[in-house]
Amino acid sequence: MPVYSQKVMEHFMNPRNVGEIEDADGIGEVGNPICGDMMTFYIKVKDNRLEDVKFKTFGCGAAIAVSSMVSEMAKGKTLEEVLKITPKSVADELEGLPKQKFHCSNLGAQALHKAIEDYLKKKKKGGGKE
Amino acid sequence: MGDRSIRKVYLDNTATTPILHEVREAMLPYLGEAFGNPSCIHEWGDVAREGMEAARNQVAELIVAEPEEIIFTGTGTESNNLAIKGLALAQQSKGKHIIISAIEHFSVLHSAKTLEKWGFELALVPVDKYGLVDPDDVRKSIRKDTVLVSVMHANNEVGTIEPIREIAQITRQNNVVFHTDAIATAGTIPVDVEELGVDALSLAGNMFYGPKGVGALWVRRGVRIIPLLDGGVQEGGRRAGTENVSAIVGLGKAAELASAGMAARIEHLTRLRDRLLTELPARIDRVVVTGHPTKRLPGNASFCVEFIEGEAMIMWLNSQGVAVTSGSACTSKALKASHVLIAMGLSHALAQGSLLFGIGIDNTTEDIDYVLEVLPPIVDRLRQMSPLYAKFVKASKGGK
Questions:
Q1: Contact between residue B330 and residue A59 where contact means Cβ atoms under 8 Å apart
Q2: pTM of the full predicted structure?
């Protein structure tokens, strides 16, 4: 019996939205090599929506599939909708993850939320100057 | 990459070897009409006992020992548990200090940790960057109350062969019992208990083309050991429970075939290994060979690929029909990087890129060439999505 669902394998082998955004509005970086995985998410925001999402991930098959799924779930959504993406909703969309890989879906959701925090912080700073 | 009809290449012989046809054939009667219990004195018992004792002779011959000194066990892990706990407990009136190397298999390491909970003191001897134990470090660790030293004959993850003879001279001078885990070596390279000078030695059937579910522990005559399993007086009272006769017969057959074919096997494995060890770093940038350049198991080719993670490589290789393993944190259920690689001084990030090829006697040059063809694009692809690789590229551009 394979360890991963077909959906995980599909996203692992054909990850969506891999890359960086040069002039990103927000960047979220989580993880470290000791725990195993590192993810960096880049977002571009327009009219309160994630116009573009890209990521780079150092990690296992689950970490790559989670990153891809998170980027797909987030793209085109409003900030409020994106903040509702949880580790569980990511894992569910992937048709489940092995128990020891749940932390990968935590990381994915965390990295995305961190990118939004970064965007909101920058926006506040920028707004203050005007 | 993807879905063309693909070659199947099994390169995970450190996890388990396949079972040889001759081994299976030898086992079959004991799963059929020769089902008797070898402890019984009737005809059925006689037939089973005969098969089992022939196997004991074959295993003894493999390691140049006496058949009566062989204890059959359920696995290599059981052999190591019995050795570490049984040999230490038998001597606890003499002392409660034991010494093992930092790169032992978990079946030795965790047995030693259990002894610690039971009131023993444990000393871990370090290794150098090649995974080699310095016998002098063992000498320095020995105390008056040291009752057991255990250092593996060769490491299963990086293939480094340890200086067992030199360590044995030290343990003998100090009158300390010396066990070696030879699970990675017995049946693969020559193992002679007298020449090594050890007092106890573990081996396992599925590491040299025998079945799973059977191992053996050799204990030198006169060395006391406390059994872990209480029950009847099977295996000279040192391991209770009706023996797994068919598996034991398979282990015996595998031992016989290993003895007979060893020189040719070593030559074949070494040739394939050296091709992989030289060609892979030549074709992929920033790949590190782990383990010793010469004191190395013939079938072991282990690497760390920088900036990417092992499980992702395993999954891609699997999609290309290639079976390998890794010591990365992500591939371990405990989510910890290989303690062997960390003990050798590798960083956690580098250890994450661990990739281990366990070459077997069925592999061919074409198998190795196939790996050399499919792996570089996999590494490229994973690096393209790695933030560590992006940082490396930026830093090296900035440097110029």
A1: yes
A2: 0.94
pLDDT tens, residue by residue, B157-187: 999 999 999 999 999 999 999 999 999 999 9
Give the model confidence (pLDDT) of B234-245 as tens digits: 999 999 999 999
Q: What is residue B359's three-state secondary structure?
A: coil
Distances (CA, A) of B286 to B122, B178, B306, B350, B376: 37, 39, 6, 10, 12
Name the residue facing B309 among A20, A58, A103 (closest C-beta). A58
**Residue pair B65/B207 in contact by the 8 Å Cβ criterion:** no
At B370 the pLDDT is: 98
| Cα separation, A73 vs A93, whole angstroms | 9
- With beta carbons less than 8 A apart as the criterion, state whether B312 and A12 touch: yes
Catalytic, out of A104, A111, A112, A116: A104
Q: Report the 3 state secondary structure along A44-102.
A: EEECCEEEEEEEEEECCHHHHHHHHHHHHHHCCCEHHHHHCCCHHHHHHHCCCCCHHHH
Give yes or no for a contact between B153 and B197, defined as CB atoms under 8 angstroms apart.
no
Residues of B in contact with A20 (CB under 8 A): 390
Calpha distance B342→A7 (Å, rounded): 34
Dist CA B71 CA B235 (whole Å): 6
Residue B240 neighbours by CB distance under 10 Å: 14
User: What one-character-per-residue DSSP string does B112-172 give?
Assistant: HHHHHHTT-EEEEEPB-TTSPBPHHHHHHH--TTEEEEE--SB-TTT-BBP-HHHHHHHHH
Rounded average pLDDT over A105-121: 94
Q: Closest by alpha carbon to B337, among B297, B290, B392, B374?
A: B290
In angstroms, the Cα distances linking B130 to A33, A52, A107, B299, B357 are 22, 46, 34, 17, 17
Chain B, nearest residue to A3 by Cα = B315
Average pLDDT, chain B: 96
B385 vs A18, A37, A100: nearest CB? A18
Q: Which two tokens stand for residue B96?
A: 């409660």
Model ipTM value: 0.92
**Which residues of chain A have a CB within 8 Å of the CB of B331?**
60
pLDDT of residue B3: 52
- Summarize pLDDT for A64-112 with one digit per residue, the tens: 999 999 999 999 999 999 999 999 999 999 999 998 888 888 899 999 9
Q: What pLDDT does residue B208 have?
A: 98
User: Whats the size of chain A, residue-wise?
Assistant: 130
Return d(Cα B326, Cα B312) in angstroms, integer: 10
